[in-house]
User: Fold this.
Amino acid sequence: MIKGFELTADYIQFFEEAKDWEEAVQLSAEPLLNGGEIQQSYIDGMIESVKEHGPYIVIAPNIALPHARPETGSLKIGYSIMKLNKSVSFLEDGSADAQLFIALSCVDADTHLEILQEIVTILSDQEKHDAIFAATTKEEMLKLFNN
Assistant:
């Protein structure tokens, strides 16, 4: 669990699909916006960052971690989880698709590393990884990320 942030059902979403990766990034970060962890400028920064640097946020097959520089509008530590039934493509060749989006709000480099470490630990557990992709309810996701 991340110090200073508790993942709740309000930060977990399920959608059939998004029209493109930009909409997916926007949707994935909306719980953070609604919770006061970020400003809209932070979401805009996430999208601009991918446009500028490519799909570096796709960290593993079907997993994206949208984030931006703290100064673009991160107010508090947090993360939100969104799972799509149909993955979106960041590149036309399909080499950077994502179905699971974990949007991060990092106020500094230390919290960025702390949140990343926590998430990578969860995702690198094959049982949890498989269960995350099989999950269909907020309760299932909460158990996987909060235990």
Observations:
- The longest strand covers residues 78-89.
- The chain has five helices and five strands.
